Amino acid sequence: MKNNLKLNLKNAFPIILAALSLINVSCHSTTEAQSVSDSVNLTTTKSDQIESGKPVIAASSISNLKPANASVIFARQQVPVLCYHQIRNWREKDSKGAKDYIVPIADFKAQIKMLADSGYHTILPDQLFSYLKFGTKLPSKPIMLTYDDTDLDQYTIAAPEMKKYGFKGVFFVMTVSLGRPNYMSKTQVKSLSDDGHIIGSHTWDHHNVKKYQGEDWVTQIEKPTKTLKEITGKEIKYFAFPFGLWNREAIPELKKRGFEGAFVLAEKRDENDPLFTIRRIIASGYWTPRTLHNSLVNSFDGK
Ligand SMILES: [Zn+2]
């Protein structure tokens, strides 16, 4: 007997993993799997297992899922993504411009608390991409917190602060900095990854991707990705463009090297490749929690 169980894909992942580990699952081929606006229908087998709370989903059901096309992805409501750099108190020598990238500790804590108090739930890239590609459901008021450039205070300040609220983040690491003073060590990056945060690539030494030629792709992309994979023991699937600078030529180069998506800054996305131009806004050191909230709403809602 076949049972059509409506599951959202996020919740189905552990089940899918369980299914993959079973060898005697009869694989019902699903009809052409479709991405729909809010959820995905997965065909399951063995109603007894469903009743016992352990539904089995044939692995073929997942491999048959077809991602939405670029225009559907582009049209979906964007999820707000914040980008942080340094989290420390301002020093006298910090320039006016630099302070946009340096959030004082108390302000950072107030921003994160505001997000929690306002009912935001942090999501990770796999959830975002599943939503964008397949229309799977997200928690209410989803938001993504990202941290660029490997700064040590992301480990010492941001991670413990997020932990208070059960938040998880994404750390885009430039590998040249690893182990340098005021930057994270490999062990710290591994610890973030083990704690359930996601480690992404932010090149070797922050060179502008638009200028890469030949060997630059190896130095800036391939080797750092390998290093991060060795550190975390996990695939590195997401990339953040240094300075948010990107061009169309870079996208196939990233795809070729196994990336599933890339993040830019606040400028427009590419209509043909929205997954490689996910927008983020920089959470400025000048912002109060209220300014941050207004900026989130203005930048991501209704676009
Ligand atoms: Zn950067």
Write a concise keyword list for the protein shown above.
globular; 11 helices; TIM Barrel; alpha/beta; binds zinc ion; 303 residues; six-stranded parallel beta sheet; disordered N terminus
Describe what you observe in this structure:
By secondary structure, the protein is α/β, with parallel strands linked by helices. The protein has two domains: 64 residues, no CATH class; 230 residues, TIM Barrel. Helix content is 36%, strand content 16%. Strands 4, 7, 8, 9, 10 and 13 form a six-stranded parallel sheet that branches. The radius of gyration is 20 Å and the shape is globular. The site of zinc ion has 5 residues, from loops.
Helix and strand topology:
Elements: E1 3-7, H1 9-20, E2 40-45, H2 47-51, E3 56-57, H3 59-63, H4 70-75, E4 81-84, E5 86-87, E6 102-103, H5 105-117, E7 121-122, H6 125-134, E8 142-148, H7 152-164, E9 169-173, H8 186-194, E10 198-201, H9 216-232, E11 238-240, H10 250-256, E12 261-263, E13 281-282, H11 289-300
Parallel strand pairs: 4-8, 4-13, 5-6, 7-8, 8-9, 9-10, 11-12
Antiparallel strand pairs: 1-2, 2-3
The chain binds zinc ion (ZN).
Which small-molecule ligands are present, each listed once? Answer: zinc ion
| CATH architectural group of the largest domain | Alpha-Beta Barrel
Tell me, what's the shape? globular
Measured between the Cα atoms of the first and last residue, the distance is 44 Å
Give the rounded overall mean pLDDT: 84
Count of spatially separate domains: 2
**Under the CATH scheme, which class of the largest domain?**
Alpha Beta
Number of helices: 11
Q: What ranges have pLDDT less than 50 throughout 5 or more consecutive residues? A: 1-60
Estimate the helix proportion, in percent. Answer: 25-40%
Rg calculated over all Cα atoms: 20 Å
